[in-house]
Amino acid sequence: MSDKGTESAANGAPQVTENSITAGQNDALIVAKDVTYSYRNGEQVSRGVKGVDLEIRGGEFVVVLGRNGSGKSTLAKLLNGFLVPDEGTVTVNGVDTADDDKIFDVRSTVGMVFQNPDNQMVASVIESDVAFGPENLGVPRDEIEERVTEALETVGMESYRTGSPNRLSGGQKQRIAIAAILAMRPKAIVLDESTAMLDPKGRREIMDTILKLQREKGMAVVLITHYMDEAIAADKIHIMNDGEIIASGTPREVFQNEAAIQRAGLELPVAAKVALNLKKAGLNIGFALTDEELAEEVAVALTEEKCESK
Fold this sequence. Notes:
By secondary structure, this protein is of the alpha/beta class. The protein has eleven helices and ten strands. The strands form two sheets. Strands 6-7-8-3-9-10 form a six-stranded mixed sheet, sandwiched between helices. The chain has a four-stranded antiparallel sheet with strand order 2-1-4-5, with helices on one face. The N and C termini lie far apart (about 70 Å). One of its GO terms (cellular component) is ATP-binding cassette (ABC) transporter complex. It is a peripheral membrane protein. Belongs to the ABC transporter superfamily. This is Energy-coupling factor transporter ATPase.
């Protein structure tokens, strides 16, 4: 059950009904300062992340982009204490993730959903799987029932509660994995490549769920991904390359940074890429982040050309 951040509970962690770490909307919830982490295999050392500075606020939707090996998944695991920095610090509302006495609170405050939902399933019945985390928190039975119902309703899976996760699609399993984290009432949720194994329909389901959590529940959401289109709705984007953050800003700011995109080996979202190609082809068109913006830019450009030709 370590993937759900509850192994500390199983090993005699304090029994509590609410997280002792709290953070309000827009407060700094997760702060990484000059964080470095390396993987060691005997005498071999490979860099995971180097000198990373990052701040995530309550209620914020943050996307970390990067190709395989860029360090983004390592960073994800550092954000809730699954990994502890070799250098620098990661704090969750002021609590250092390196503090063994507080790690249970850290992981209850910052939940994590991984790439393969099957690795997070611990029960043969969906409602039992979602209840597992609150049970380890020592939550009373009546409240557990409430939390399970609320979590499943939030991800649109309440009608499946008595079924088996083995009969679900990949997107549905991932939504159950998210519900299992929600039932622990975290302040933030980190999704590490949680859409990577899904088909387009499953990816849309998860993105809809992510936006619902952030907009309706006020939860901080950190999405680790290499899909550029998933980052368009983010409040802030960080691009990683070779273990470092090489660009940060709003989607509009970051996706206009062609140098950083190329350095990271990434491609622009479809609308932005089409707009750039049309501009290079001679059409007087501005930057477009979405399909709607692209259509508007093209319409304006064509109208201007028509007027000039008269």
